[in-house]
Amino acid sequence: MKVAATDTISDKCQTALKEICEFSDLSEVPKEELAGKLNDFEVIIVRSKTKVTKELIDSASNLKAIVRGGVGIDNIDSDYCKEKNIQVLNTPNAPSRAVAELSIAHMFSLLRNIPYADATTKNGEWLKKDLKGHELTGKTVGIIGFGRIGYEVGRVLNAINCEILISDPYAESKFVSEVNGLKVELDELLEKSDIITIHVPLLDSTKGMIGKAQFAKMKKGVLIVNAARGPIIEEQALCDALASGKVAGAGLDVYWNRTPENSCILEHKDKLVLTPHIGSATYESQDRIGDEIVEHVKNLN
Questions:
Q1: What is the CB-side half-sphere exposure of residue 208 using CA atoms within 13 A?
Q2: Assigned CATH class of 2-92+282-300
Q3: What is the pTM (predicted TM-score) of this model?
Q4: Which of 47, 141, 171, 249 has the highest CB neighbour number within 10 Å of its CB?
C-alpha cells in the first residue's frame, strides 16, 4: 500500500510506517502543489495544516483513506469523502491529555498572571505587591463538551477540589460521576461558572455557540479558555466582553484564522494568554498520535 504524509509526523511514526507500507514524506511539498503529487497514493496522512478539499480528493484517484493525526476533522471534506467511499480516520485518544493539560495551564496562567510576572521579572522589575492573584482550588469551572479531553480536564480539576459543571447532552453519567461533576444545561453553566473551558468539535451546531447572548449570562469577571476551535466563540462578542470587563481574561490556543493577527482581541493583550495552537504539541502526545496512525494503516492493509 502506498501511503503519503502531507504534514509532519514523528520520526518514530515514519520508521514504523516504512516497515508496513510504501511510505513517502510529502510534508515539505508546498500545499498548492499537493494536488499534482497524490495520484499514486491509497492513503494520505494529514495533521491540521493540509486542507483536504474536494479538489485535492479528486486529484488522488486511488485514494481509499485519509488518516488525520489529531482529533478534529474540520480540515477534511468528510461529506465528499463519504460520497467517494473514502474512509476518514482520526486519532482521538492520543492528544487528549496534552490538550487538557494546556487548558489547565491557561487557567493557572490567567489566575496568577504568570506570563506578565515572567516578562516583568526578566525585565528587571519586581512587582511582588502588584501581582496578587487567585487560586484555582475551590473555583466553579464549567466544561462545555465532555468527550475525551473534557473528561481529562475534569479529572485534574477534581483533584484540586474545584466545583465542576458539565454541559454536554451526550455526557455519560459514569464519567461525570468519576470527576464529581454536575451535568447542567448550558445556561446554568454560563451563569454559575468562574471559569469556562471549551471542548466541543467545530460543527454547524457549535459554530458561534458562545456569542453576545451567552456572554450576557455569564458572571462579571469570568475567565474563558478555548483550546478547541476558534469559531466556536464569536470573535467580536469576545472582544466586546473583554472591553466591558464581563470577561476578565481569556486563554486561547485557537483563533478565527490560523493566527490571531488582525483580530480585535489583540486590543486587549493585557487580558490574554495566547499560545500558537500547541494543544497536542508534546513529545508524548506526538508519539501516541504516531502509534494510532500506524495502527490505522495496519488495519487498512
A1: 5
A2: alpha beta
A3: 0.88
A4: 141
